[in-house]
Records
---
Amino acid sequence: MRRVYLDNNATTPVLPEILEAMRPYFGEHFGNASSIHHHGQETRAAVERSRESVAALLHCRSSELVFTSGGTEADNLAIFGLTREGDHIITSTIEHHAVLNACRHLAEAKHCDVTYISVDGRGLLDPVDVKRAIRPNTKLVTIMFANNETGVLQPVAEIGKIAAEADVYFHTDAVQAAGKVTVDVNEICCDSLTISGHKFHAPQGVGALYLRKGTQLEPMLYGGSHERSRRAGTENVAGIVGLGKAAELASASLDRGNDAKMAAARDRMERELLALEATGLNGADSNSGRAPRVPNTTNVYFDGIEGEALVIALDLKGLAVSTGAACSSGAIEPSHVLTAMGLSRDRAKASIRFSLGKQNTEEDVDFALGLIPETVARLRDLSPTWSKSALSI
Amino acid sequence: MLASETIAVAMSGGVDSSAVAAMLRAEGRNVIGLTMQLWNQRRLAGHAGMPESVQGRCCSIDDVYDARRVAETLGIPYYVVNHEERFERDVVRPFVEEYLAGRTPIPCSLCNNHLKFDQLLIVARQIGADKVATGHYAQVVFDEQRNRWLLKRPADRSKDQTYFLFGLTQEQLSRTLFPLGGMTKPEVRELARRQGLVIAEKPDSQEICFVPGGDYKRFLEAYLTEQGDAPADVSGEMVTTDGEVIGEHTGVHNFTVGQRKGLGVATGSPLYVIQIKNDTRQVVVGKDEELYSRTLHARRVNLISTAELPEPMRVAIKIRHKHQPAPAVIESTGPDEVLVTFDEPQRAITPGQAAVFYDGDIVVGGGWIEASQ
């Protein structure tokens, strides 16, 4: 069966050239990067070359990067590492659980106060709300760069300026932005920033935290003095090499304007889907139009269907897409992001995320467009509520 | 049944439904495994009197892992579908409300009617499966003469689950398979062993799946607290059948018709709960012989082997799951309503339970017991 994967915001395939770059570090170059001998020097050099590549992608210094096991660890490290008991934290209602649940933990266990900034119908938050929320004991603002479900880009540069003026730390989870749009830590004036390798074709299990020079951070792991004592533990050398190569490829790709090509493929797909009956875009409203987005993501609702059933039906036909967030059993819960945008539970459950990756082709989009309309129609035919809701429209 | 038909198997992670998936797969059918996520076991954990750790069996993560392992062993696609909202609305809330109204509910029947053979069947059809197969011990056959789908008791009488399936409509039965209907439980376990399924020795589940440890009273209190309702005051008087007040009770939900223990009153001869009065919240107690009645009214009746009851019909009736069917006559007294008259008085006819009508092995239909007389 032909299988097409349009769920690249969940994870991406490791590109062949990235796998090739990593391969020697599973075999011939196996040294511990902390060892003083030849083997250690070899892998140390590889780790530091990768750090430079990632630094180039984020426009920061390589010494400002801490390699981690991924996005969740980097988010946790920033949030726990920059705050203390009793601090006030500002975040948003649409963050990833790596941020939301870290903040919740601080509220429950460390007497921290957390303010959740809400978003408008497009999924966009207003920087003015962040400014208003700042209090004398505010220590940290943590607002994501791009949302994983809608792809909507938040006004991080303005938020960064507000935080800097108030002398408050600004952390941004840029997991869904890195590799897709230009990420420049100086433009957004952030103190820390999270990236995750597997969201842009590096392997799972590696990520990084940018930490502005001079920022004091309490580590989470205690052990050796790896990563300038900010993250103990022997480096995941092969993963880090993969992350470095992915960063190189992403920088080159952005320079060549490939993001515009991806946006064009996404837009074509979106246009055809939105032509279907009772179908709409999440991340737009009739007054303000579309919010700015990363080039690879579209989130569409098909009223009258259960997104869960559509995901399964499409998977059985070879198309991988997603809805909401999977809970521990693998069942799907209505997206907190979409409900935070004001969608009804029914519409949130009727929403599907399509996200493209570098490996996707125009034919992949054609394949999806060939399957979705008939599948949506079948689901609606079999829905006990659809005909009723259709009549009331 | 065509070999090309796609069949969705409702997989709980237990032996029975795993064996069903294995059997259908061995027959070369297109099989899709589905597990319904119905209740979050952690939801009430730590609430008043509820265990901190997860103890109930319903939708535990381990069961989902088991089902996933089985699906992977069999090489079939497998998905978990979330029906928590519907389960709470159509099963858990009615369960709580029935107890607070002095009745003794059967959530499994509600789950079959509203979830397994309704929502799951819809999902199955939406994803391209024509039929749903489950691990219930029952048989479904089409009767040409009557031109109806029949529900019949299984080969293994000790595992008969038809009592919980009386609500199935003709449309639902036409899309349902019970592949274990002709097998005994030991045969099912043997099949699971032969297929190398990891769950072959897993113990059977007995209790109500969402009630940890089977303690429904603690569950009711924890659920009501979580809902922000102060546990409703359903306390009242304890009276004898002569109307004499002999004490107070803490809530009608603590009692079931026929109950002897835990009445909180001491008299010379053993006392039993005879009736629970919803309107006055009185719990009526009396002697064992006062527990017997000859008639009952059944509401929301579903008929299976026949479309209607134009005249009284002789049947055998189960008034609880473990009841020996008793001879009786049923007659229609209104739309979806039936009057049951037993040949011999029956002990502890309990409102909220089902009365299921049998003609030999065939399930004629059934309804919810409203009151006995």
---
Amino acid sequence: MKPLLAALALTTALTLPGLALARPVTLTTTLNAYGGDGAYLAYYVTDATGAYVGSLWMAGGKSKYYEHLSDWYAATGGDPAQINGITGASVGAGRDLEITLDLADALFDAGYTLHVDAAVEDMRDSPNEIAVPLTSAGLGRAVPGRRYIASLTYR
Amino acid sequence: MIRALHRWPGLLALVLVLILALSGAALSVFPLAERLTAPAEVAGQSVADLAARVAERHPGLEEIRRAPSGRITAWWFADGQPGAAVIDPATGADLGPADPDPLARWLTGLHRSLFLGDAGRLAMAAGAAAMLVLAVSGAMLVARRAGGWRHWAGRLRGPLAGRLHVEVARIAVPALLFSALTALWMTGSTFDLLPDAAPRPAQPAAVSGLTGLSPADMPALRAVPVASLRKLGFPAEGDAQDVLRIETAEGIGLVDQGNGALLSWAGAGAMQHLSETIYRLHTGQGAVLVGLVLGLMALSVPLLGVTGALVWLAGRRGRPRLAGMAPAARAETVILVGSEGGSTWGFATTLARGLQAQGQAVHLAAMAGFDPARHPRAERFVILAATYGDGAAPASARGFLERLAQWPAAPTAPLAVLGFGDRSFPGFCAFADRVVAAAEDKGWSRLIAPDRVDRQSPQDFARWGRALGAALGLRLELAHRAAPPAVTQLTLLSRRDHGAEVQAPTAILRFALPKAGLVARLTGRGLGRFQAGDLLGVLPEGADLPRFYSLASGRRDGFVELVVRKQPGGLCSGQLLALEPGDTINAFLRRNPGFRVGRGAAPLILIGAGSGIGPLAGFIRANRRRRPVLLFFGMRHPESDFLYRDDLAAWQAAGRLARLVTAASRGARPHHVQDALRQEAAQVLEAIRGGARVMVCGGRDMAQGVARALEDILAPAGLTPAHLKAEGRYVEDVY
């Protein structure tokens, strides 16, 4: 698949007070050939206490299926405002998804964690498919997912 | 209007509906396959027992699902590797991979969205909507054609394409309607237009915080039988705050992993149950039989599409063009046509040409959309109108009566009305009669008296033409050839000659059944389906007008048989009686629905003389159900023109003919068939009292003699031949 390039003006929750500086970060996700339909993926960040901070991206357009991204759904209550303007198409098995967005510098090396929940029709829901700490050292390092995601890299 | 509603969605959405139907039919077999391969269920097993067995063999168990087919699938994550398998519920062991079938997945993608995402989903929903419109409008057309919903399953007549279309449609239409409706419901559900979201159990305020309890010991799971399980999700490993999540047919619950108690529960609502039932029935998941039936019925769609397009094309072809037609504003004679199948247009064209030949400026138009203001120079209007069903307007006359009723006044130019119909139907020329009545109500002056043409009879039409010509001061000879287009060549197989000694040379001619391909049969070429009693139009060499002979065989007999008597100086009979095996004739079929034995087991009284035995012999040959048949057969001399003598004896032996009474007009004891009838008066009357149907075939004199004899026979019972005729129990084929 031609990588989806999404330039995001990060709006809602991640504009924390006093965090003026931000850097462009590219998230590259490669899916396994798991032999099913397109995967719904929810990208979001939690803080050091595990509390939800904000959403980065929602791959998948039908809100009625969001409940299958159960951790994200539990954290947000499925609130559509959380992903307003940052949704795209679901991602087919074996395909790539590339997202570019501005992340506040203060999110790095401060205990924040990037989570990805995944769900595929007629297959097992995979909440917490990936949970990777946001650190400067982790930039450019590929992280494997549990079931549907082969690798996730942020740089 | 209904016809347009049927035609345009049909033609426009044909491709879409075809893809829907074919992919749907293919998908319908998968639930059965899954059902057949699903491992046996364990009677009375609880979810707790199942979960314990699976968890024992699969460390890191994350989820267990039960499909409506009974198939159990488990997902786990162990040693950094995800795993999934179909599970034997009895042991918890793996039975095979859990990957979805790639073909089913591909078909599902095609069926629901053409692989085009939401745009494709909407396109397919439009296809389903088109199918809904087609099914409803089609059902209404079938009902109208049959003469009402009560006659929904009535017998059909007409060319094969149209008959197949209706025959298949009325079987398949309930299933197609159901598939289309449920498809639209499911689309509405997918696009969140329906309030059928899954229930959500409340997050528990507190959990026990313990871990490690075996599922086997969880009370909340022990209470649920596997049969009602949908899905069981296990808590994340090492997260003591997480819970088990169980989905059943009744709702969704959260279960404490430390003590196995039900923490919260949300029951499914009525809308959800409905949506789920609709999904099950549409896909056949958990309702294998319903799915298979829907799939099988969906297979009718390609056939309906092709035959429907053929019917539409045939209707277009049937409308002839008129060379040298005067524009509407300049025409002296305006001919208005109300035609269903197109044959009335043929008569209108013949009339128009006849008038043109006499120097008239003629305009030809459909009755529908008629506006007298468009014909300022019109000196006369002529309406040629067929009838649809029990007196409804034919296709090209829709709305005519309603518009006529709204005019402030009738046109000043006078009107002539000619009705076309089939006398054997109850509503013979009923629509033309309604036009005449409506015109009279409006005070529309009459050019000539209304008349009728029975079964496209060229003679009826020519007679009316002469009357019209007389009114106009013209010599109008209308020689209409009722479109004998599809003549088929028949080859003589054999002939049996009789009657030469008694000056009545008669032959039983048997022709080979012509081989017609499917296309020819679908487009109405070739002889098509026929029965004894139908008419064969024979085009003699050197003449344009066909002669009609009653068929003595049906298609099932595998040959085409006629009984022909040589008429003195007869062109056609002369040619037929000169045929030798291998010679050919040009012929076509004309159905004769009024002269059929009909269904049922009531006795038949068949009465015929001379060559009139033909169709009667055909009826007896086809009487495989051994309905009691009493045959009265009149001939000249048993030694000369006892047609079908050996066959009748054989049929009698086989039980297809109950009794044969013959009458010979020459020889030892001369008497006619009506005399024989009188001699058997008691038996005839008894049979008629028992519901018998009387069928007479032969010359006019014989038929009149039979009618008088029957009158006498029936009188003691207070019955008359007219009574029987009105009930359709006394029919004649007279020449």
